[in-house]
Amino acid sequence: MIELASASGGLSGIAREERGGTKPGIQNEFINVLSDQIRKKIIQATKEAKYFCIVFDSTPDVLRMDQTSQILRYVKVEGSKVAVVEVFVDFIETDGENDFGEDRPRWTQH
What we know:
β1 and β2 form a beta hairpin. The longest helix has 25 residues. Strands 1-2-3-4 form a 4-stranded antiparallel β-sheet. It is built from 3 helices and 4 strands, in the order αααββββ. By secondary structure, the protein is α+β, with helices and mostly antiparallel strands. This is DUF4371 domain-containing protein.
């Protein structure tokens, strides 16, 4: 994983020089770099697929706050093998009440 992150040029010199454990900032940087690389690979595989769909599913969490999950589903063909692949991409927090259809959700940006 470190090779993948280093190859992308995403890790700062601080992260490479740190010894004796990692600090939260460095951990977050590492997670962000890896998640960006994984997301790019998922999007590339979806672009190469002939058939795909994007799924959004909104569900309240334990605090009754709406949280929408973003899922990509595509058909992967390798030779004579055909498979439907479903991949979770991200959570999108929604802002608004929609338990009883009172308001439509408003998307919030991360």
